[in-house]
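Case study.
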Amino acid sequence: MRRRLWTSLIGVVLIVIATLAYNVATDNTPILGLDLQGGVSVILAPVEPATAEDLVVIRDLSRDELERRGIAEPDVRVQGDTIVVDLPGVRDQEDALSAVDVSGVVELRPVVNFSDCPAPEANAPGLGLGDDSGDLAPATSVEPQGFGRPATPADTVPGDAVPDATAPDGTVPGDSVPPVVVDEPVPTPITATGNELLPTRDGSVLCVGPAQGTGEVFERGSAQATLDQGWGVAVDLRGDGQATWNNLANQCYNTTPTCPSTQPGLRGQLAIVLDDVIQSAPQVNQPNFTDSVAITGSFTESEARSLAAVLNRGAFPVAVEAQEARTVSASAGSDSLQAAIVAGLVGMALVVVFLIAYYRWLALVILGGLMVWAGMVFTMASFVSGWTNYALSLAGVTGIIVAIGVTVDSYVVFFERIKDELRNGRTIKNAAPRSFKMTWRTIWSADVVSLIGAFILFWLSVGSVRGFALYLGLTTICDLLVCYFFTRPAVLLLAQTKLMARQDKVLGMNVATT
Amino acid sequence: MTLDTTISSSGIGRLFRGQTAIDFYGKRRVGLYTAIVVLVVTIISLFAQGLNLGLDFEGGDAWDIPASETFGVDEAAEVLSANGVSTAGARIQLRSSENADVVTVQVEVLPREQAAQITVDFAEAAGVSTEDISFSFTSSTWGREITEKAVRALVIFLAIVMVFISLRFEWRMAISAIAAMVNDVVAAVGVYSVFQFEVTPATVIAFLTILGYSLYDTIVVFDRVKENEGKYAGKRMPYEDIVNISMNQVMMRSLITSFSSIIPVVSLLILGSGIMGAVALREFALALLIGMISGVYSSIFIATPLLAFLKRDTGRKTYRERLLGDELRGEVMGAGVTGRGLGDGKLVTTVDPDGERDEDRELVESSVAQPADRLLTHPPRPRKKKRR
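After joint prediction, the assembly is written out as follows.
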């Protein structure tokens, strides 16, 4: 038993010291928020005149898109007739520009025959248009099982509406299709009719006709991935977008020349294009849609989710482009972080002095525990902010300072319980394990509530609320870990020493001993 | 080993020795009335003047001023102060690119004349003409969507916490804990509304922190109530008594914890924002301070009396008055130990005059039953026979 306690005690201290040393050595510190450290600011301007409401919509969509890409807590606002995006934790202006590159409007373009597209230019090998790709691309991008599948109504399709389109796109590409580097600007030959060769996400190429609609036909934010005999995407149509969509759907269903059947036995395909990359080219299985569209096929979960995200984001009313990136200084004033840290440390020192006065020698456990806790929080914060890009803002720093109180509470509950037991005549050797058992139950219950809060807020909310949840969760987990792996062995081992037999010195209480 | 059962004569002495016998349940109306007052004041204030929402919620005015060696963030702040605009709610940043550096100043929406005057002053301070300064309206960064998502998350969180507390403890405790938490958040919001402090995203975070802290504190208290409930299960002890006993037992813990939680916040308030002048910390720390004080108060004076009130008709019918004074004290001291309660609620106590250990302690102790006898009210269990 003693050996186990020692193992736990020494183990946790060594782990914390080791990870802390690793962090210090690699200069791995938590990313600091805009208010503490500043960041990079990018100005987005609409390419054509936009109304104030359009700008607000773009602001919200940009923030969503940034958060979806893992850039946490961006500060996005409309200033004048531009949109200013401030990014924390980004030091390089080029990085910021590419991160904020959320411009682009989703277009709906019918898929046409390759013969209607101009021959690819000779210097476009990256396009994957070898001599054989002309007939390969459609063959591999249309998955037979996607076509032959029974119709699967998606959740959001109301009543009797039949599933409508299959997505042949979300499938594993054939081996023989050379990959296409899609994020490089590809010279795209355009004919007089507006037909264009565009790459798909899985690397093949399709010839598409001119855009006949934009992502605005879809209800803003309504697209979601659905799971019903396989992953799909359901999206609602806007009242005024329905006509546009049905017009297109009609053409493709009836395989008119503008949206011909590119393969025998198949209906026309409708390509969803973002930034000149075909996101999906579902076959249209019915001429008329009411209220909603379901896209089904052999998607993986992530493909379905990313298509849903594209459809949601496609509701940008106006395309915007990044104009300029600037580094931006801390908004809360450079002295705020320093003041918070100094005040926090002084506060912590005062707490320790107070606890030593009250608990005497036993307070050394608190001192050690707080140091282990602080090291652990710092380490975890460094790693987590490196992985998730969550910056530590002023609110986060003060939140951690508040967490000191909650952490100290685990000791106080424990020690007060020990005192109770001593007053009732137990020896400290006997009282300590019993007290810990009861204390652990209390701490566990109370901390689980905090953890539930942290998880749910992190999962469901956005922006700084999410950052708060992250740090709440971190400090709570550290509290539990320190309580079990440090405080417990430390106190139980101390309780067996001779020092602890002199309780008046150790606990600062007037219990007479014989 | 003997036990010091001397009851200290001073209140503080009793507190430190866990000998308090405060009738918390008897004072339940105090908690109720303060909660009602807080609620009414907050509601009236919210309707009358609402909250002073900051830049991030409502948008404001923004200036872009060319920066130079003689004009930077500090100089911009001085111009604002000279025009009587608080810099606490303003956001002043230096934005630099290869082409030019600008100081961006964002403040809450100002009257047109004042804004024009500030533009002129900025131009003067920066040594440029007013045409070089761009003045525009800046939107909120905290969109409605963020609020909606946060509120939705919060509602789900509270629902799950209700379920958790109901499973771990019981549903009456869940209701009481949530009620106390609502009181704390209302108190903090009320202070912000009454004094018209500016609400920033950091303030919202502070409110969330208060919410979590309040629930945490209440659950620690309820855990002891639950434990004592089990301890007195066979004794038809009225619930008010159990609540009183538990509250007296955890009171020292509550005080120490609150004290150690509040010290760092006070340090932020006095040292950080007062002496070191980081104004950004001030209102945040203030919100936390109010919420924490309220959190401790509500877990004692709102959550537990409410719990006792909800539990009053649940099969623990009793025909005697609740324990008070020394009887309560006896239970408080006896039941702190794991395992068993004291039982009869009677303890022979003697008060020593100065709260110190006396020379005549032997005399005192002789009049008190031995602790072992006191605790072991039933005969010891026969020793188990060892297995062969």
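Observations recorded in class. Chain A touches chain B through 98 residues (CB under 8 Å). The radius of gyration of chain A is 31 Å. We will return to this complex in the next lecture.
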